[in-house]
Amino acid sequence: MKTYACGHINPDSDSVVSAISLSYLKTQLGETCIPARQGELSPETEFILKTFNLEKPLLKNDFSGDNLYITDYSDLAQAPHNLKETNILGIIDHHKLGDITTTTPLECWIRPVGCTNTIVKEMFDHYKIQIPKEIAGGMMLAILSDTVLFKSPTCTKVDTKAVKELAIIAGVVDFKALGMEMFLVKSAVKGASPRSLLLRDYKDFEMGGHKIGIGQLEVVDLKVFDEMKEALFADMKAYKEEGGRHTVMLLLTDIMIEGSQFLVVSDDESVIEKAMNTKLVNHEMWVDGVLSRKKQVIPVMEKQF
């Protein structure tokens, strides 16, 4: 029986890097752990791994008969296949508590911070384990990604402190400049298929008995989507039907002017309008100040559904 650390499906940078950082920590503590991922890497995550010479985690979607540390989620909708056949050892996460349950006690580190890697940093400090330079750099960029360069309302003083300390370990003098370089890579959408963009940072949720899908793309200029919206809408409609979903939403988030353009395909658009207190025009709406799906969208959507 092997032990793995793995994040959610359609993995983002936090999900991938937290699997790497947690696996190293657990291995140093005497419990051999292998980092894994449930999907292909985004251009941003590829940038992070290449920048700090980190290996890609193992691609794996079924941990039947294995031990598993879950990182960056606790919802069944984001879990690997046959989770009931997996021995869950722990959950390390910064989201709301989901619906995953276990039959035995487990280790839980769940904190209201901006990034799972911030929690893993706290774990390193707790156990007094030194973080390797390369892993520290990856953790630093993952936190900057999840907190949108500290602009997200999910960002806390714990996150900013962690980034500053990790930057020193990684030998990065100007972490903000490197973070902006990362977001420029994240903004490169030209040539990508509509489906790959929709699923780049996408999660399904169960709300009021309905399956709701919410994706998010963070860029430095929304103009990159001007000629892509028609194709995005068409693919969203197809994806909605394929999975029997009530709603599929895609947030196009501009990190410079700090807000999000919502693209919505839904059986009942009025629910989304009430949740966000904004009217849709041709299935689109701009919501000023919305940067966080986790804190500013999901809670109000769940309440409305």
How would you describe this structure in keywords?
305 residues; alpha/beta; inorganic pyrophosphatase (n-terminal core); Diaminopimelate Epimerase, Chain A, domain 1; 2 domains; six-stranded parallel beta sheet; five-stranded mixed beta sheet; 22% strand; DDH_dom; DHHA2_dom_sf; metal-binding; metal ion binding
Q: What is the count of structural domains?
A: 2
What is the helical fraction, as a range of percent? 25-40%
Structural class: alpha/beta
Q: What is the overall number of helices? A: 11
- Give the CATH class of the largest domain: Alpha Beta
CATH structural fold name of the largest domain: inorganic pyrophosphatase (n-terminal core)
Distance between the termini: 41 Å
Beta strand count: 11
- Taking strands numbered 1, 2, ... along the chain, how are they ordered across the largest sheet? 3-2-1-4-5-6
> Which homologous superfamily in CATH is the superfamily of the largest domain?
inorganic pyrophosphatase (n-terminal core)
Low-confidence stretches: none
Strand content: 15-25%
Mean pLDDT: 96
Radius of gyration: 19 Å
Largest sheet: 6 strands, parallel
Taken from the alpha-carbon principal axes, the silhouette is globular
How would you sum up this structure, described in words?
- This protein has 305 residues and is of the alpha/beta class.
- It has two domains: 182 residues, inorganic pyrophosphatase (n-terminal core), CATH 3.90.1640.10; 111 residues, Diaminopimelate Epimerase, Chain A, domain 1 (Roll), CATH 3.10.310.
- Helix content is 38%, strand content 22%.
- The chain has eleven helices and eleven strands.
- The strands form two sheets. A six-stranded parallel sheet has the order 3-2-1-4-5-6.
- A hairpin with a 4-residue loop joins strand 9 and strand 10.
- Helix 1 packs parallel to helix 3.
- It starts with a strand and ends with a helix.
- The mean pLDDT is 96.
